[in-house]
Amino acid sequence: MEPISFQPIYMTRVWGGRTLEDNYQRNLPDEQLYGESWELSDREHEQSVVLSGIHEDRTLNELWTKNREEIFGSNLDGDRFPLLIKILDARDDLSIQVHPPAEIAPHLGGDPKTEMWYIADRDPEAKLYIGFKKGVSRDQFAKSLEDGSVEDKVHAVQPEIGESIFIPSGRLHAIGAGFLIYEIQQNSDTTYRVFDWNRVGLDGTPRDLHIEESMKSINFDDFEPTMDEPQGDNLAQCEYFQVDQKDLEKGASFSNGRERFAVITVISGLIISSEGSQFRPGDFFLLPKGASPISADRESKILVTTIPV
Prior knowledge:
This protein is mainly beta and 309 residues long.
């Protein structure tokens, strides 16, 4: 079993840019602003397709439904691959938003979404907006939505490249201008925008806000969170995913073992498969269970995303 690579799905966004082209030499479809590259997606209308090899042109959902135990491992439930993995290119501020917690989402007609962000690159003064400044109340925040003073109420941090943060459902958040981020999340696309900087969309009209749904979803006791401290190799762990960072010396190998698949993100260096495929920074691939080890052709850094057993 060799690594499986997929064709990225590129999404235009009003806040996007061309960094995927500049940093990773990606061939973007046209000259529009692209804010997202969906690297592994098993959504109804956004299906990742295998690039080459014995599974060429098959979708991620086909692999999940027809070859689940062979490729992904045993004791994995669900009709769809449980993760959605993206690169985000934020050249402008994203909306201030929230994803509904599991206990609330069904009542709002959405799906819960817990995620994590890894800072792949950033401009020196770029900010993430996470949670609230200490002491901000629900009523104060609601008033700020009316008078436009939302930025004064939300907490901002300036992370370094290589830092990460866990975003549980219910946490108010926004990515500021100037970030390139690897996002690992539950397979959900439910986002409630509560404030969008009074901006219009690509079609020239104001984007929809979801204030009622947002106010029901937000954790108003989430004050001034900081970027996460790694626990050894581990960057994030919850019931939905586990993300570890591995530093590989030149010639070192990595194997995900025989029980479960892993999704590999190349942060730096050069990774080589046993049959000679090369993976560079910004590349993502699925390493099937029991796959041959991959190795570092030079000093390299990777993210390893798995589903907790």
